């Protein structure tokens, strides 16, 4: 133990990384439940081969950790923290294949200091397992290609398949692999190797549960993830807000220094390829093959489509390794200053909730809402409960309450995976219901004063009750409109 402590003291990079990880795990108990946590926890409580909006890996992980540690917010958050810690270690192993000791340490600190690692450590999303299996895929592919260790083709296939079972964007792993081999003079011959195609076949075989679930459900998940977005992109409406919003998100996730390094070397390598037809050295080409399609590909969409802040995250793995080749000690210090300031501000917001968040994407108020809803349930014992905001309120209440909480499919609207929970809504015919609707722009304590026609179409009578006001730090922070509905007609 003493030897280990001395090694850590002598290795500043490890000290920085452990410092950031210690900060994150100490902050975990202060984190409230996010709607995403609750929704993917719902995945795990309703085990399936796959799910409507994403494959099921994050749900399986949350089910495992809550079965081991018990159902609690901390158990959910600890699952994210643990898996992301494995991603950091996998990144270190991968980066060691490309960087000298000094540059490796800088890249290690660069990754660990980012906001996106903190987000993955605190918030349950499919990106949590995706980045782990993405990193493991690249480690295996490196071993298979550069060290000619054939059995690593098998491991690569397994890892690529598990990455796809985490999130569909993992298909870019196979795309990046083939792109690298096509553009690499030295390794192009591997396109004829049976081991390559065996690896790809394994990766597809591992994804069989996702394909079979889609086959059973009219390919609903694939259609959901592609058709709406494809139609939006083909409209080709230029929106500067999308573009500048994406830049803001990426500067926040990566912090300004790292983001600007990404932009600089992306421009440098693309310009060389386009104007001089110059291909980077083999190992750099390998890293770029798993960076450019994801980072630049999504970035090029930002002027015409709202690219979510997490879509580029897989590119960060090899992107940070490339950044480690260029970043100076001075720039790393500036990056760390930004990181420390941002993390301190984030921690103050999490612990003290200084700035109200006008959105349902928040970690405060859900448990208090569940408590107040339980009181309503005692008063209206015959009523079932439902909400209408895709998944957020319904998922959060399902996490905290013993009674089942329904979603907007009750009033005939699509409700993501709530539509696939095998609920027979006809069993609710004639029953009463409590409808909960979040007032995202909370301004006053008044009732809404109007009844949505979607409610009156499904219920014989709808009466608005007094809204639920949630106090955080003795301040009125969140508001939910409440409606009592009688005689449900599905």
UniProtKB/TrEMBL annotation:
Record domain Glycosyltransferase RgtA/B/C/D-like: where: 53-213
One MF term in the entry's GO annotations: glycosyltransferase activity
Localisation per UniProt entry: Cell membrane
Enzyme Commission numbers on file: 2.4.-.-
Major subcellular location class: membrane
Group of enzyme by EC: transferase
TM regions (residue ranges): 13-34, 74-92, 104-122, 152-183, 195-213, 242-265, 285-305, 311-327, 334-355
Record's bilayer topology term: Multi-pass membrane protein
Keywords (A to Z) from UniProt: Cell membrane, Glycosyltransferase, Membrane, Transferase, Transmembrane, Transmembrane helix
Protein name per its UniProtKB record: Glycosyltransferase family 39 protein
């Amino acid at each position: 133990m003493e030897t280990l402590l001395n090694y850590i003291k002598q290795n500043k990079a490890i000290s920085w990384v452990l410092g950031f990880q210690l900060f994150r795990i100490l902050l975990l108990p202060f984190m409230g439940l996010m709607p995403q946590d609750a929704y993917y926890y719902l995945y795990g409580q309703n085990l399936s081969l796959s799910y409507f909006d994403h494959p099921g890996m994050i749900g399986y992980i949350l089910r495992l950790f809550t079965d081991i540690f018990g159902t609690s917010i901390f158990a959910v958050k600890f699952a994210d923290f643990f898996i992301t810690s494995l991603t950091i270690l996998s990144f270190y192993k991968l980066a060691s294949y490309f960087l000298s000791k000094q540059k490796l340490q800088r890249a290690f600190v660069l990754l660990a200091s980012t906001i996106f690692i903190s987000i993955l450590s605190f918030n349950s999303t499919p990106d949590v397992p995706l980045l782990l299996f993405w990193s493991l895929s690249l480690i295996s592919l490196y071993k298979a290609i550069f060290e000619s260790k054939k059995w690593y083709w098998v491991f690569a296939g397994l890892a690529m398949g598990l990455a796809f079972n985490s999130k569909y964007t993992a298909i870019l792993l196979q795309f990046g692999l083939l792109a690298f081999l096509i553009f690499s003079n030295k390794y192009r011959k591997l396109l004829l190797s049976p081991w390559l195609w065996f690896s790809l076949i394994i990766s597809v075989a591992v994804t069989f549960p996702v394909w079979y679930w889609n086959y059973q459900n009219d390919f609903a998940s694939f259609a959901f993830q592609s058709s709406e977005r494809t139609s939006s992109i083909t409209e080709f409406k230029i929106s500067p807000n999308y573009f500048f919003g994406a830049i803001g998100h990426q500067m926040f996730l990566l912090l300004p220094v790292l983001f600007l390094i990404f932009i600089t070397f992306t421009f440098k390598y693309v310009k060389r390829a386009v104007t001089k037809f110059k291909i980077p050295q083999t190992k750099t080409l390998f890293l770029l093959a798993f960076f450019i399609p994801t980072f630049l590909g999504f970035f090029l969409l930002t002027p015409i489509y709202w690219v979510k802040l997490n879509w580029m995250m897989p590119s960060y793995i090899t992107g940070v390794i490339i950044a480690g080749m260029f970043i100076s000690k001075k720039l790393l210090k500036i990056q760390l200053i930004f990181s420390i300031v941002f993390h301190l501000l984030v921690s103050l917001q999490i612990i003290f909730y200084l700035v109200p968040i006008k959105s349902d994407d928040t970690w405060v108020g859900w448990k208090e809402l569940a408590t107040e809803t339980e009181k309503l349930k005692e008063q209206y014992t015959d009523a079932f409960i439902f909400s209408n905001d895709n998944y957020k309120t319904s998922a959060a209440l399902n996490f905290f309450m013993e009674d089942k909480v329904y979603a907007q499919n009750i009033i005939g609207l699509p409700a993501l995976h709530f539509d696939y929970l095998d609920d027979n809504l006809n069993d609710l015919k004639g029953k009463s219901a409590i409808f909960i609707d979040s007032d995202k722009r909370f301004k006053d304590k008044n009732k809404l004063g109007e009844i949505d026609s979607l409610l009156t179409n499904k219920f014989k009578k709808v009466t608005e009750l007094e809204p639920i006001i949630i106090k955080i730090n003795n301040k009125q922070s969140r508001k939910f409109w409440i409606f009592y509905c009688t005689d449900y007609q599905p």
